[in-house]
Amino acid sequence: MINLVLFGPPGAGKGTQSDLIVEKYGLIHISTGDLLRAEMKAQTDLGKVAAAKIEKGELVSDDIVIGMIKNKLAANTGAKGFIFDGFPRTTAQAEALDVLLKELNMSVSVMLSLEVETPELLKRLLERGKVSGRADDQNEDVIMNRISVYNASTLPVKEYYKAQGKQQEIKGVGSIQEIFQAISTECDKSL
Ligand code: B4P
């Protein structure tokens, strides 16, 4: 059983690396960004609330995302483990994840933090915006706000896992395979 938190600023490569990790380790991938975009596409009430935040580059409320995680965990009992992509993004979310996992006799195994500087993040997201159709990737002001929100509200999550001795930094610049190799080395230690 391995429960991995994949952490990093917007555009650090979380989604990209998650796909490779799922393929190698057979974990269940939970991306709060993907879950929120699915709600937006289906135009649910939750999706409409999320869209108002995401369009501005702000975080969706803790209650909403914690509820989504709870549902995903309940729907996947018997999994070999989970990869949490883009969650937790606040200390309150990190605390809630610990409680939810404890109820299931599980815990976070390791938190891997992808390290990438702001100019590279901006470049990657604007590039993705040209092909993804994601409105939040097409506007430089929105991207910069996402990075500011990351620095103010999400970076403290690193300290939360550091205090638990679970945080590991991974250089997020280089080829996708090189970065995956570094991630695999850390995952193997937790197996
Ligand atoms: P997310 O979907 O999590 O989006 P993201 O952090 O912006 O980026 P993502 O993780 O998908 O990008 P990646 O690094 O893989 O969140 C979207 C929004 O939803 C948030 O802004 C927030 O409003 C809301 N939300 C989500 N979770 C929430 C939570 N827990 N609480 C509150 N709100 C929440 O890749 C980026 C690009 O870089 C790709 O195009 C990729 O091809 C490229 N790339 C990857 N690796 C590369 C490499 N090594 N070299 C060059 N390019 C690379």
Cα-based radius of gyration, to the nearest Å: 16 Å
Q: What small molecules does this complex bind?
A: BIS(adenosine)-5'-tetraphosphate
Helix share, percent:
55-70%
Would you tell me which CATH topology applies?
Rossmann fold
CATH architecture descriptor: 3-Layer(aba) Sandwich
Describe the largest sheet: 5 strands, parallel
β-sheet strand percentage: 5-15%
Count of alpha/pi helices:
9
How many separate domains?
A: 1
**Oligomeric status of the shown chains?**
single chain
Strand-and-helix sequence, N→C?
EHEHHHEHEHHHEH
Through-space gap between termini: 7 Å
Q: How would you describe the shape?
A: globular
What does this structure look like?
This protein has 191 residues and is of the alpha/beta class. The protein has one domain (2-190): Rossmann fold (3-Layer(aba) Sandwich). It has 9 helices and 5 strands, in the order E-H-E-H-H-H-E-H-E-H-H-H-E-H. It has helices at residues 14-25, 32-41, 45-54, 62-74, 91-103, 118-132, 140-154, 156-163, 176-190; strands at residues 2-7, 28-31, 81-85, 110-115, 167-171. It has a 5-stranded parallel sheet. Helix 2 (32-41) packs across helix 3, helix 4 runs parallel beside helix 5 and helix 6 crosses helix 7 (140-154). The radius of gyration is 16 Å and the shape is globular. The termini are close together. The mean pLDDT is 97. Bound molecules: BIS(adenosine)-5'-tetraphosphate. The site of BIS(adenosine)-5'-tetraphosphate has 24 residues, from helix 1, helix 2, helix 3, helix 6 and helix 9.
